[in-house]
Amino acid sequence: MSSIAIVYHSGYGHTAVLAQSVALGAARVAGTEVHLVPVEEAEAKAAILDGADAIVFGSPTYMGSASARFHEFMEATSKTWYGRGWKDKLAAGFTVSASQSGDKLNTLIQLAVFAAQHGMVWVGNDLLPGNNNSKGSVEDLNRLGSFLGAMAQANADEGPDVAPPHSDRKTAERLGERVAEATARWVRGK
Ligand SMILES: Cc1cc2nc3c(=O)[nH]c(=O)nc-3n(C[C@H](O)[C@H](O)[C@H](O)COP(=O)(O)O)c2cc1C
């Protein structure tokens, strides 16, 4: 049995939708227990994060960065960092913004550096980039072409009922599944 926690912030619901997609993908892997932890509950649910074999981080991109609320969470983990509490857990990340780029890569880099500071082992996205040739479409998985983690784009005038689109949700699902597969191997090898 392996345990995966997904800790995320979502101001307007788009990142929450992706968190659910990551959870759905992870739960497809037999023997995986999945915990969704909104960042507002991270302190109360610290035992879930500390007990997980993998933690997936999710934040919207605000001003080209992880959100202030997510940064607050990151800084609040400094005691855990000092005690090496998350060392050798697997980690991964996802983000969403309104623009096609929106500087989302910077957010994923922040999440990966955060994981590295904790001594965690980062799992990237294994999907080839989509929508990058004449036969491509926005329906392609990994349509935004990210390897570091799952990226999604949500139109600024659409709610989480429709945005981000199906392809981005499926991309996040695959990241969750990949993290769960990697975690199962990681836990077996311990
Ligand atoms: C304060 C703020 C800053 C934002 N900055 C960016 C940005 O830098 N790039 C971008 O493309 N979208 C930006 N957006 C749009 C959000 O990334 C987008 O609406 C996203 O889907 C929000 O996710 P959430 O619903 O989980 O909060 C910003 C939105 C807010 C509220």
TrEMBL record:
Region (Disordered): 155-178
PROSITE patterns: FLAVODOXIN, FLAVODOXIN_LIKE
Gene3D superfamilies assigned: 3.40.50.360
GO molecular function, one term: electron transfer activity
Cofactor(s) essential for the protein: FMN
Domain Flavodoxin-like: 4-152
Amino acid composition bias (Basic and acidic residues), ranges on this chain: 166-178
SUPFAM superfamilies cross-referenced by the UniProt entry: Flavoproteins
Cellular component, GO annotation: membrane
Keywords assigned by UniProt, alphabetized: Flavoprotein, FMN
Signal peptide: none
Matching PANTHER family: FLAVODOXIN-RELATED PROTEIN WRBA-RELATED, FLAVOPROTEIN-LIKE PROTEIN YCP4-RELATED
Protein name: Flavodoxin family protein
Source organism (scientific name): Magnetospirillum aberrantis SpK
